[in-house]
Amino acid sequence: MSEQPAGLDGLSPSAPAQDPSPLPLRPYPPVERWDDWVEFDARAWPRRQERRYSLVPTVCFNCESACGLLAYVDQASLEVQKFEGNPLHPGSRGRNCAKGPATHNQVYDPERILYPLKRVGERGEGKWRRVTWDEVLDDLGARIRQAFLEQRHNEVMYHVGRPGHDGLMEWVLFAWGCDSHNSHTNVCSASARAGYAFWTGLDRPSPDHAEAKVILLISSHLETGHYFNPHAQRVIEGKLAGAKLIVWDTRLSNTASRADLHLSPWPGSEAAMLLAIARHLVASGRYDRSFVERWVNWRDWLAADHPADPPSFDRFEARFLEQYADYTFDFAAAESGVPAEQILAVAEAVAACEGRLAAHTWRSATAGNLGGWQVARCLWLLSVLTGSVGVAGGTSMNTWDKWVPRPHHLAPHPERWNELTWPQEYPLAFFEMSFLLPHFLDQGRGRLDTYFTRVYNPVWTNPDGAMWLEALCDPAKVGLHACLTPTWSETAWFADYVLPMGHGSERHDLMSQETHAGCWIAFRQPVRRLAMERQGRTVRYTYEANPGEVWEETEFWIELSWRIDPDGSLGIRRAFESPYRPGEKLTVHEYYGWIFENTVPGLPEAAAAEGLSPLAYMQRYGAFEIRQGAKASFEETVDLAGLEDLRTDPTSGIVRTSSPATPSPNITPHPVFAPTAEGRPVGLRLSPEDAVVRRGFDTPSRRLEFWSPTLKDWGWPDLALPTYIQSHVHPSRLDRAAGEMVLIPTFRLPNLIHTRSGNSKWLYEISHRNPLWIHPEDAARLGIHTDDLLRVATDIGHFVLPAWVTEGIRPGVAACSHHMGRWRLQETAMERWSSSLVDLKRDPEGRWDMRRIEGTRPFASTDPDSSRIWWTEVGVHQNLTFPVHPDPVSGMHCWHQKVTVQVAQPGDRSGDVHVDTARSRAVFQEWLAMTRSARDVSPDGLRRPHWLLRPFRPSREAYRLP
Ligand code: SF4
Prior knowledge:
By secondary structure, the chain is α/β, with parallel strands linked by helices. It contains 27 helices and 33 strands. The strands form 7 sheets. Strands 24, 25, 26, 27, 28, 29, 30, 31, 32 and 33 form a 10-stranded mixed β-sheet that branches. Strand 3 (68-74) and strand 4 (80-85) form a beta hairpin. It is globular.
């Protein structure tokens, strides 16, 4: 405890108020005072009343960016006074968006779920009984054990919305022997991932915005997109340092408003524009010829598609120009509606980037359109042509800037394949076909015995929510649904168990994200628990320190696994035993402590230098920086010392050895390094004479696969090169004269989170509407003005909402933000800050009608602010009216909708929704018919190319088609 209480300099309680501060002003409390920090209590003003705080670092859980937070925990009451940024976190550097500090609202929400609940009425009836955690764990443990004893492993499914951790569920589900992981990826990023993965073997880009000369964003990353706050900081840094910021977004987003050049293309035309730029770079000779010659698999393309050609780079260049001859600026302009000179201006900027092009797309155009994965592929082509790969100011791939450590015990890959998540129709999908689950259950492809949803609200977040309602209400399809959630949600309402889990300050997790050119690991931790432990108090389980009986998941999975396998006879318990106390139950500190001691490069040494254990170091600082700066991992020289029987393939240059691999501390060694009958691949010689063996890319060729043999071999030879696929909302597929338009429904609002902002009063006070953006020309055609009610008809239903007439959108295109339209079925339940009370009805033919009874209004609670709610509008749940649109290659749900916009009809109310699930099934069949099944196209009898990324990878044997 410091002898002299000192606050932010100049605010020191012990200094007379009129004295100038003797210390320089600092933006954050110095870390040496985090154990005992003193500030005046603002609420006691004008009295100068001190409050003493324990400042505990943790990690925000409100999006995937994993920014650092610093919790101010009152030492006397253990109340969390506020959350600020953790200045020691390398990704966020002490800064947060509005959602970080709003963690406080989530923790102190008067309507949060504090105890486990069990359904007592019909599903969805809203009748609950409080139960004990023992009751829950015994029930789930016995049920899952029985399923495992009967070899029904895959009937136990874990379906996650926001993971918020790295490596945890591989540890759990591998130990259980299930292929039971399901995710939200197909409604989010599958398309972008596929585009990057066919090129590189890795599925996320990591741009270095801060050092870039040109920043090209096909998204609204500055204010809402992927790695929002860490990226936004660095985009602005790059811009202030002179980088040109180019944004492609049909909508005038906040990001677009900051751009040097904003292009508003017709949705889905982006790949045509990118290819015109690529062609221009090559045609004008302003590209990095040397990089492309060294690293791109151009020889493979010539050999496959032009076998009579000499294998020379000049020939490749000629073929490239021939291949893309049609992609002129005029063609791109005709497709996109963007003037040719604007596309040329982008091309000229890219040509002048000097190998420092930071380019990024995620969701956005990739997630909206049929074939959107080719947008990411064509964007990466610009990174390759400019030589901006893995260099300062360029774009890297995620695993070069991310570290996912291995736990103390990782069971072998399971020997099962789950057809409900990885159906044969989608052999190249990224990843699980999660949003089709209710359709697959509907078709009788399987059933679920025990279904965990975890921080996931598919009824509201996914398309076709009414199909989810039908599945969740049918015990023949879903035997038991346990919803692990920190908040109420539309999905939780239809569960059998609602199990309260901690917010970002109430749980342990490890996180590492590719937020910038560098690599770090961060530790989310329960801040009250840490504050209690700093006071010398013993806390055995995190729920002892959390409000009510809120658990953290790491402890939940340990406990549940022990109850599934109490005597260890199933071989499961072993993974959940302590590495330090053989045969005894693992504690959460042992789980993370072992990881920090054994698998994080440099951490044990850094901790020892301060006389701390690695766990104590992470508890104190909350983050550790593994590396600074960009790293071109593919260029790394492989150490061949000790490797026996080295052989270099004369055609590919791939070098193999018979020596086994050294065990990796990382959880995800890429499958291209797996041994085969030919030996274990270790790297690549770029030419036969090259003495150096380099690591190469994570593709079968170890090069950048401009031409994808995988796409060719798996039924898509026409798409093996980066190309332009006309979207399902291409102008030729619309009858504009009949009033058909395109709806962009994907964009976020910067201060909201999908479901969890619903219990944040600060965030909902800022944003609580999602009107339809519509251009003045369309408004004039319809004879409407801002705030007039509109009815928007999709292929399966319609929704009603007010208009916002704006020039921030193209004529013929409308836009509506997601995050809005939360609803509840009972007056007194569920996030009344953000939900409207509705009446929901289904007729026997599967036609659903949601009728808004009322929007938000003030309510009495332990928080006086709930009686001060002044807003009534909370938006419309548009996703209910969207049929599923699974892209036949990437598996991505293609979010954009062909719609008809009309003036609302008499009796329509804002927020009304109508859906016909018979139409849902019909549209699903139309899209399913576009697929090319592994059974028809697999070249090797496998369900999926073994080299292609797949989370929770089963054994190789399980890949075999039955
Ligand atoms: S960007 Fe905002 S919501 Fe996301 S982790 Fe950072 S502070 Fe939290």
